[in-house]
Amino acid sequence: MISYAMVGTKDIKRASEFFDKVLGIVGAERVMEGDTTIMWSDGQPDKPFFGVCLPHDGNKASVGNGTMISFGATSKEQVNEIYKCAMDNGGRCEGEPGMRGESYYLGYFRDPDGNKFSVFYPVS
20 to 30 A Cα–Cα from 45, which one of 5, 51, 55, 72? Predict the structure, then answer.
């Protein structure tokens, strides 16, 4: 259903360096890059892309209130690794990794621009 998700940034270089590290943990690489937009993919054709961009309208990027994107992880350990990487590279905590209910292990963070993300692992 989802083809890609994108967030705005005020600094394309800083955002690209942040997401190269954070998304590199799940094997994602840059698949499209221009002066104003960068997209990442993990190479799986049935999975959505993720991107950052300088807003096309020329206005300042802002954080969507209530907007959040979740990245999938393959284990609790990978959730922890991605969360730590985000914290070590200018991200801010929005909820440390842990169980949410009985079925989900998640960590929440904001990128250097203030966009909110989660890292999600379904526990069987």
Answer: 55
